Amino acid sequence: MKFIFKKNLKEAPKEALFVSVCHTNKDEIFLENGIKTLYLKRDELEKFQSNTKNLRRLYLLIRKMVILAKQTQVKQLAFNFNDFAILLSSTKKTEVTPPLANGGVTSVFSSTLELAEIIGTQIAFANYEFVQYKTPPPEGFNFIKEIFIEGTNPEIQKIILKGNIIAEEVNKTRSLSNTPGGDMTPSVLAQEAKKALKNLPVKVKILGEKEMAKEKMEAILAVGRGSEMESKFIILEYWGDKKGEEKKDKSDFPPAGGKVGLPSFLTKNAPIVLVGKGVTFDSGGINLKPSSSLLGMNMDMSGGAAVIHTMALIAKNKIKKNVIGLIPAVENMPSGKSYRPGDVIRSMSGQTIEILNTDAEGRVILADALTYAEKYKPSLVIDIATLTGAAVVALGERASAIFTDDDILCKNFEEIGEETGEYLWRLPLWEEYESEIKGSLGDWTNCHNKDSRYGGATNGAIFLKQFTKKYSKDCKWVHLDIAPRMTSIAGEYLAPGALGTPVRLLYKIIEKLK
Length: 514
Ligand SMILES: [Zn+2]
Description:
Bound molecules: zinc ion
Distance between the termini: 34 Å
Structural class: alpha/beta
Shape: elongated
CATH superfamily of the largest domain: Zn peptidases
Number of strands: 20
Number of helices: 15
Mean pLDDT: 91
Helix content: 25-40%
Radius of gyration: 23 Å
Number of domains: 2
Oligomer: single chain
CATH topology of the largest domain: Aminopeptidase
CATH class of the largest domain: Alpha Beta
């Protein structure tokens, strides 16, 4: 898809669908003098302008435009940037000051630059469909090829294109996740990481089972043991802020519109580590899932896919920070070699894990990956995992669950979540919950030790926490359970299948961290 900026939309080809954003009763398409115009229904202006949550309406509106255009089979779309800018150009800017902010943590929304990035991102996000396995129809697949935009300036254009690059990486994440399990093995995921980061300044290192055994990563090896496919541990290193180099301040890419001053804790160039769950197919193992739960389990590597393409975005935008990606990649299968319920595994950390259910495998592999992260002496570790069905039960399919002990950081994640359309909701991570995972044979059980269904998302998080306790005192840890946002839902104006969450969120957080 190509963005073409014009002084006047009259220069756009006649076959294009011209869009007029207005406050009408319904979306309508008219053909007048051979020109097709879409009158795109929007809400009243106040609904866009009253508070930040209503950026949500804007995302939907932009995506609706694309979906309606695709329904008419046009290949070109033309609109005026100011039709959207007017939605945000309210008299007062919307400010959000979180109650816990220290040092004036504020977000200012509704700048035209932010809008530019949103437009660039959301158009490409909505244009995506996963067609890799389909035979192309004679007229070709139904994608918008060219977007003509009037009413921009060079600065806005640059940021629209930047938004488009963000969406391209999100869409690549979706394609990795959408790939069937038979074609997406741990080795393939590792190859895809290499491909995604080719020609970018990211070091890619892949550990096989032998190398993992040397590192004593017995938790990852145990989960992968039942599969014919070799487990892999994918290490991605991006050193954007050279060690020893005096930390340059502060003038990172001007965040589009908003300026969220995150707490300043990235000390001494210590890296940010992203850990992504890479279960390329989760059958449940010996605790085999019921038929109804097996479909879609090729997407259980969505956290890992998000890490790969977040790394690509960081490198492409030359972010001056050190960021490491770690992806334990395994297939969880039942066989004579599988790990069993009742097994006790000594993890890389030295702590033992008592397996009560082989379908709670994500936290087991993440345990070793979180331990491996210690090597980097990080200042922030974020793990991303389609970890629990319980998170979906708790939140529905509209927000990912966030767990952290740091209130300010949490608030900032939530805000950037709003700003990027990657909505988050916090669940507890209190130490009281530890009693639910105390083992009788081993140190920790990999699910509730009384076989209770209660609090499953928190039990997963509190388990992971046990493997972050050796981080330095200043290091923060955030766990994102993205199971609720693994796939799109009706009404979002997005293709069915994987969502590519939370690439936009991670990228923005890292871009804005000080
Ligand atoms: Zn599982």
